[in-house]
Design goal:
One of its GO terms (biological process) is mitophagy. The protein is of the alpha+beta class. The chain contains eight helices and eight strands.
Length: about 250
């Protein structure tokens, strides 16, 4: 028994000291925090946008009583018009399930918010995202406009393109013309997709900052490296609603 015990101890020690080969297949830093953000995009029926926004403004409290709203915007420029974009925060998937059960049992929410809103909506999209490990959710210094830039990266995950993407984002941050609100990596939805949410004082200040960044050698070098892993990108100019926590 003693010999067997010694053999077992040696085997466990060898396993502990052995290189963890499987870690080379990791797609990026491990996600320890269960908190995630649901991105929802609604395409509103033509001519129904005002009615939709008025209904949400009047009744959004029925949903925020159950879950945390991060921001709610209308799409001003980029892609389809008559579109709204909103972000909801959850502690984990169990929390999201609890919220959905509570909403399903909330008659007032169903009758005053859900049913009217669904009647004004053409299409809904949902993505589950995590903040990347090197970024936290920030707040703007004052009211302004937002830009959501979506990057579709090559398959392979952050282990392939994470470091170069981080350098490209930070190169823009260092110029100071725009404030970084958050960088989100998709968990459910289109994979290898990263959303970067920026705040600007105005659309004109954003345009001026972009022109400046195009002439900065640090930005040019960082972006040139990152685009080697880029498949496509698009952006939207977002206007916060009066009831959006992020203004």
């Amino acid at each position: 028994m003693l010999a067997l015990g010694k053999s077992l101890t040696k085997a466990l020690a060898a396993r502990t000291l052995a290189p963890q080969v499987c870690s080379s297949f990791a797609t990026g830093p491990r996600q320890y925090d269960g908190t995630f953000y649901e991105f929802r995009t609604y395409c509103i029926k033509p001519s129904k946008m005002n009615e939709f926004l008025e209904n949400v403004k009047k009744n959004i409290h029925l949903q925020t009583a159950h879950s945390e709203l991060v921001g709610f915007w209308t799409v001003e420029l980029g892609g389809r018009i008559d579109k709204v974009f909103h972000i909801w925060k959850y502690d984990n998937f169990a929390h999201q399930t609890e919220v959905r059960k509570a909403l399903a049992n909330d008659k007032e929410w169903r009758e005053q918010l859900l049913i009217p809103v669904m009647g004004l909506t053409d299409k809904q999209e949902s993505e589950i995202t995590y903040l990347v490990p090197w970024c936290k959710l920030e707040k703007p210094p004052k009211e302004g406009v937002y830009e959501l830039v979506t990057f579709q990266m090559k398959p392979g995950g952050p282990a392939l393109w994470g470091d170069t993407f981080k350098r490209a984002v930070n190169a823009h941050v260092d110029l100071g013309y725009s404030k970084l609100i958050g960088v989100f990596h998709t968990e459910y939805g289109a994979l290898n997709r990263v959303h970067v949410l920026w705040w600007n004082e105005s659309a004109d200040s954003r345009a001026a900052g972009r022109h400046q960044s195009h002439e900065d050698p640090r930005v040019v070098a960082a972006v040139r490296e990152s685009v080697n892993y880029l498949v496509s990108q698009q952006n939207m100019l977002l206007i916060p609603t009066s009831y959006s926590p992020l203004k």
